[in-house]
Amino acid sequence: MSSADDRESILSRVRGALAPLHERAAMPDYTTEISVMRAMMGSRDALTVFTERIALVNGLALTDPAALVARLRENQWLCGYCDPALWPSLAPYFGADFKVDTAYDRKRVDDYAFGITRAAAAIAETGTIVLNDATTSRRLAALTPWVHIAVVERARIFADLPEAVAALGPDSNVIWVTGPSKTADVEGILIEGVHGPGIQIALVV
Amino acid sequence: MRFQQIDQFAAELKADTRAAVYDGSKKGHEKRTKLLFDEFPDANRLRQIAGEVKQHVVENLDTYLPQVEAKLKANGVIVHWAATAEAANQAVLGIMRARGATKMVKAKTMVSEETELAHFLEKHGMEALETDLGEFIVQIDGDHPSHIVKPIIHKNRREIATSFEQNGLGAYNDDPQTITRRARNFLRHKYLEADVGLTGANFVSAESGRLVLVTNEGNSRFCLAATKCHIAMVGIEKIVPRDYDLALFLNLLARSGTAQELTVYTEFISGPKSPTQPDGPEEMHVIFVDNGRTEVLASDCRDILRCIRCGACLNVCPVYRQASGHAYRSVYPGPVGAVLSPLLMKEKFPQKADLPKASTLCGACHEVCPVNIPIPDLLLRLRNRAKEENVPSPGTPPMGAWALLASQPTAWKASLFGGKIINYLPTKLLPIPALRAWEAKRSLPEWRGGEFRRWLKTRKSRAD
Ligand code: SF4
User: Fold this and answer.
1) Residue ranges per domain, chain A?
2) For residues B114 and B344, is the Cβ–Cβ distance under 8 A?
3) Is B340 a pocket residue for ligand 1 (Cβ < 6 Å)?
4) Does B40-291 carry CATH code 3.40.50.10420?
5) Phi, then psi, of A191 in degrees rounded to 5
6) Which architecture does CATH list for A37-204?
7) What is the ipTM of this complex?
8) A181 with A154: CB under 8 angstroms?
9) How far apart (Å, rounded) are the C-alpha atoms in residues A5 and A24?
10) B177 interaction partners in chain A (CB closer than 8 Å)
11) What is the tens place of the pLDDT at every residue in B246-273?
12) Taking Cα atoms as reference points, which of A123, A121, A119 lies closest to residue A49?
């Protein structure tokens, strides 16, 4: 049978299965307000909440590029990738001990200790970074290095999930990243850095 | 057979496995309760609404399926339909062959477990590598997942270390961190070499055609960053009406499944990569899979199609905790599996008609379900169906004597009175094996037959 035949057979079986129902369940009327942690937000500003929440998922929010560079140096994460659009403004903070490429080479995945890309937005309530195809220079650069640094504009921090969903926009690929990649598959023990970054940093500018 | 099949399996389970499953599922459940009920003013209301939304979708699939198909096509996605597991696998194989592809990296998807896709592709000369850590371990072990969210909940680190060693992934080392790093280093090159990335979908929005995928490890993201072709296998019931509904479901899914506020990676995919983006699939296929779902839709158990595969009902189920997932002999274990698995067997229903009996009907599964599925009711309907179809029920204690007593008031009263004799018998010494086994760990309460009837006769009505 072809896909077209299967389509017909599935749809006709669906219609057949539903035909005996006298009444179909109606779509409930609700607002997403019910799934928002209002109490947590309070009257605090989005950056404060975001900073607190990203720490809870073992991520880190920084506002000073110098602090970021110090941290990279301290851990000897000296080789990395940076989005060419960001590099001119960040280069002055990096010293000659760093080797930073603005072209990502997928043959060298194991060489990049860090990747710096732009984020489209962030979500305060969950400490989430929002990436999409339009703003992220390379999907791989935000994923393969041990450290990912997402540069996010302060004005682009949404309060909660419903706000962020409403702002998904026309981009064909949007991804929310909430803390470092992790697993608890082995005996329920939390390990970070499975396939993606083990360290997730947001640089808020 | 002395026991029902599932009891037999549980009785023979290794102590290690039982402990691993018990601890793993209990931990998941306790954190979930705290997260859900501390953070939301009315978490139960959330579950009810989410259930109503999905019930609405299920009962209107005839409208939503063509709608989502049109949207996907408009987004540049190639849509396929597969009535059976075989058709779904053939569709994947066809896509790979048409591209001259030989290597696939696979994210975790339950529907591909149903169709046994990886086996199928390997038989046809393709490489199909599981990338979720748990699924990867299951694959190199030739084992089966035993939980829908935590596939290797039944294994301990020593077993995993041994299979890594046997598969050339380094000398024996059972440190979970080392195990994870080794998998990381091995798999990252596999993604980059692969031609095709296969995923499922947790939700599909009918309004925008967006597929939503959640993972913690980042493996599905890697599949979609490294490969040029994305194939998504999607059960026909995965639809939600609008993007607006996604916030509600995402808020519930991670809390219910893994006791997280949100999974680490939540990806919204509405088509092939954007033209300006260097990484990711240029071609995207969605295969809508029936494989028994329309049968479920036609049954009086269609509510189970609301399921968002969170695993909360497994974690909370006293039977699952004792028996482990493999006892259910199905892709879907636990309470959800006890309903879904026999139904997905279609005309072979009798082969799994014993599963709905593997429940005490305590109701915990209903209470935790983020889409409020009345699982105990559905279990009863399936037990009834088995009875009506005269499916034999080996290992079930006969209820004939009880039925006789319960239908004759005088006999019932007499037996309530006569039962008092138990209070004077040395029950611990009676040569009845079942009773002795039971009494080894517990003591029989005092017989109080008739107490309830006395209370009922003498109680004052509420109005007084
Ligand atoms: S039946 Fe409910 S609790 Fe069980 S896996 Fe499905 S959604 Fe989760």
Assistant:
1) 37-204
2) yes
3) no
4) yes
5) -125, 135
6) 3-Layer(aba) Sandwich (3.40)
7) 0.96
8) no
9) 27
10) 191
11) 999 999 999 998 888 899 999 999 999 9
12) A123
Q: What is the mean pLDDT of residues A95-100?
A: 96
Provide the pLDDT for residue B2: 59
With a 6 A CB cut-off, is B46 part of the ligand 1 pocket? no
d(CA B183, CA B197): 18
* Fold held by B5-12+294-388: Fumarate Reductase Iron-sulfur Protein; Chain B, domain 2 (1.10.1060)
Alpha helices by DSSP H, B59-168? 61-74, 85-99, 110-115, 117-123, 133-141, 157-166
Does the pLDDT value for residue B463 go beyond 60?
no
For the ranges A107-111, B35-39, B115-119, B360-364, which has the lowest average pLDDT? B35-39
The per-residue pLDDT for range B61-103, each reduced to its tens digit, is 999 999 999 999 999 999 999 999 999 999 999 999 999 999 9
CA pair distance B353, B364, nearest whole angstrom: 21
Length of chain A: 205
Tokens representing B103 are 């290597």
C-alpha span between B425 and B93 (Å, rounded): 69
Query: A203 pLDDT exceeds 70?
Result: yes
Q: What is the CA radius of gyration of chain B?
A: 25
Q: Do B250 and B239 meet the contact criterion of CB atoms below 8 Å apart?
A: no
In this prediction, what percent of chain B has a pLDDT beyond 90? 64
| DSSP secondary structure letters along B387-412 | HHTT---TTPPP-HHHHHHHT-HHHH
- Best A21, A118, A190, A195 residue to mutate vs chain B (most B CBs within 10 Å): A195
Which residue type is seen at B100? G
Average pLDDT over residues B392-410: 79
Is there a contact between A195 and B277 if contact means CB atoms under 8 Å apart?
no
With b for 16 or more beta-carbon neighbours within 10 A and e for fewer, the B307-322 pattern comes to: bbbbbbbbbbbebbbb
Residue B312 CA: which ligand 1 atom is closest?
A: 3
Residue among B441, B402, B448, B442 at smallest CA distance from B423: B448
Domain locations along chain B: 5-12+294-388, 40-291, 410-458
The ligand 1 atom at the shortest distance from the C-alpha of residue B335 is 4
Predicted pLDDT at B461: 64
How do strand A157-158 and strand A121-123 relate by DSSP bridges?
parallel
